[in-house]
Amino acid sequence: MINSNITADVVEAEEFMDMAQHYKVMGVPKTVINDSTEFVGGVPDEYFVNIILQTLGKPEHEFATAQQSELAGS
Predict the structure, then answer these.
(1) Would you give the DSSP letter of residue 16?
(2) Sign of CA dihedral 41, 17, 6, 34
(3) Within a domain: 62
(4) What is the pLDDT of residue 27?
(5) Which of 48, 46, 44, 14 is nearest to 32 (CA)?
(6) Residue ranges in the chain modelled with pLDDT below 70
(7) Which of 1, 17, 18, 25 has the most CB atoms lying inside 10 A of its own CB?
(8) Which residues contact 39 (CB under 8 A, 6 or more apart)?
């Protein structure tokens, strides 16, 4: 594993209905971070990283877009 401070569990909601009800799973994928932040559906990596940072009370990371990278390189 790259970072021992990060763990993840994947749960099959159909098999573990009690857990699905506890986390109010209505769609998949459902991501729950530290039992305090959650969202449903696939999201861009940048959004995912910033949601984690917000949950931890850290400043968000500003990601360069492809267009910004092109401008910087010219």
Answers:
(1) -
(2) positive
(3) yes
(4) 87
(5) 48
(6) 1, 64-74
(7) 25
(8) 30, 31, 51
Report the number of distinct structural domains present in the chain. 1
Task: Indicate the residue type of 51.
Answer: I
Q: What is the pLDDT of residue 15?
A: 94
Please check whether residue 31 lies inside any domain of the structure: yes
3-state secondary structure of 41: coil
**Which residues are CB-contacts of 3 (< 8 A; sequence separation ≥ 6)?**
none
39 closest CA partner among 31, 27, 48, 47: 31
- Domain range for 56 is 17-73
Q: What is the pTM of this model?
A: 0.68
Model pLDDT, residue 72: 57
